[in-house]
Amino acid sequence: MGITGRTSGEESFAALSSDALDAFEASFRGEIYRPGEDEYDNARQVWNGMIDRYPALVARCAGVADVVASVNFAREQGLEVSVRGGGHNVAGTAVRDGAIVVDLTDMNAVRVDPEARTVRAEGGATLGDVDRETQLFGFATALGAVSETGIAGLTLNGGYGHLSREYGLAMDNLVSVDVVTADGEVYTASADRNEDLFWAIRGGGGAFGVVTSFEYALHEVGPEVYAFFAWYRDDDAATMMAAFREWTESAPREAGLLAFTAHVPALEEFPEESWGEPAVAFLGSARGDLDADGVFRPLSEAATPVVDLSGPMDYVDLQSMLDEDYPDGLRYYWKSVYLTELTDEVVDLAIRYNETAPSPLSTIDLWHLGGAVGEVSQDETAFWHRDKPYMLNFEANWEDSADDDANVTWAREGIAEARDLPVAAGWYGNFPGLNEDPAKQLYGDNDERLVDLKTEYDPENLFPTNGTIGPRARERSDE
């Protein structure tokens, strides 16, 4: 709330020029939501129920011209811009207090070019939107693992998923992007057009403008893949993590696996006597001509599972099987750390913190990385942490706002302990907590070049995004 008793959105809105606002609304084809209007509260909500922010306006764009109009209006009126693609960034970067939200929700068209093996998707599209269209032709691009996630935030910060070890990050599959920069200009950026902007977009987290469309390379995937999804008792956690570590040392790149500690959900697929018990689980897939049973046999034979839901399934079903675990409005706080090695200390930490989690919905995830991700040099894109073989992620997920402090503290303390380990090395932009960590740990030696490009393309910091990339201060004249 502001000092007048009004929200920051109401205060910023009241300071706008009425003539400029009228002209903006007259030129706008989509919908604009103001503070106090019936739809305003719905329009400012995002996926993470923790986020409760009050923008000056929400501009739900119908096309690129609306995006340009919104950016120009914001710049001329001295407003910051936040961009909503899917609205799934855990830190809530899609909405800022007192800013204008450039909302791409209705810009979600997807077009596949099967001959060129590319797909172009607008900035408001979700993973599910893209997968549905590409699978029609037997293709997929490397995206995330929850179909309701927006492609924009996922891709601009990197983008890990089931296909990463074989085909790289989501951003590594970009062929080109269309982006509206702070001056209201529309650029196409690719490997041979506006190369510096293309470099920065890939890993820069949206700090350089509004990406209105993404063109990705496609790969032959599916329609059927083999999914490995098995849960094991807490007593077997150390054994299974040791088997996982050994598996990762020689796993084929056509297979991927995520290990996580969790609590057995109260679902009919699980034995009722196990509900609520701490556990360790694995979710992954094998594709192509692999002998899937053979690939995952070292894990399936290491201990007796509580339940084994593995088997062939459609790729789109694999991509959406976690959707129900991450509903809109649940409260989320996620933090990450890369690991140079998966040590016994890391495994012990994950098991120990899982047993003390305040919420049974929370998990501690161990991502197996490497493969194609590590075959791109660290300075080829803005994304820095390509050489790390593992990532540890604390996912604090809970329902009641009264439990905020307990769950945030749990995640922060766990990550702090993990980051003190000798194998810890940096963090990931899509699991950022509330963006309270220093940029150097995110961008490494790419940080200075990012600041230079931010100063060139967004000198007034119209797009503050995650707060980690800011322009250089202008030198004052002695006149």
Relevant terms:
single chain, 479 residues, alpha+beta, eight-stranded antiparallel beta sheet, five-stranded antiparallel beta sheet, 19 strands, 28% helix, globular
State the gist of this model.
This protein is an alpha+beta fold. Helices cover 28% and strands 22% of the residues.
Structure description:
This protein has 479 residues and is of the alpha+beta class. Helices cover 28% and strands 22% of the residues. The protein contains 15 helices and 19 strands. The strands form four sheets. Strands 12, 13, 14, 15, 16, 17, 18 and 19 form an eight-stranded antiparallel sheet that branches. Strand 8 (174-180) and strand 9 (186-190) form a beta hairpin. Helix 2 (18-27) runs antiparallel to helix 4 (64-77), helix 9 (237-248) crosses helix 12 (344-355) and helix 12 packs antiparallel against helix 13. The two termini are 40 Å apart.
Radius of gyration: 22 Å
The largest sheet, given as strand count, sense and whether it forms a barrel, is: 8 strands, antiparallel
Uncertain spans: none
Task: Output mean pLDDT.
Answer: 95
Helical residue percent?
25-40%
Tally of helical segments: 15
Number of strands: 19
What structural category characterises the helix and strand content? alpha+beta
Q: Shape from CA axes?
A: globular
Q: Give the N-to-C terminal Cα separation.
A: 40 Å
How much strand? 15-25%
List the helices and strands and how they pair.
Blueprint: H1 8-14, H2 18-27, E1 31-33, H3 40-44, E2 57-60, H4 64-77, E3 81-84, E4 100-103, E5 110-113, E6 118-122, H5 127-135, E7 139-140, H6 151-156, H7 164-167, E8 174-180, E9 186-190, H8 195-201, E10 210-217, E11 219-220, E12 224-233, H9 237-248, E13 255-263, E14 278-286, H10 292-300, E15 307-308, E16 311-314, H11 315-320, E17 331-339, H12 344-355, E18 363-368, E19 390-398, H13 404-419, H14 440-443, H15 447-457
Parallel strand pairs: 2-4, 3-4
Antiparallel strand pairs: 1-2, 5-6, 6-10, 7-11, 8-9, 8-10, 12-14, 12-15, 12-16, 13-14, 13-18, 17-19, 18-19
Helix pairs in contact: 2-4, 9-12, 12-13
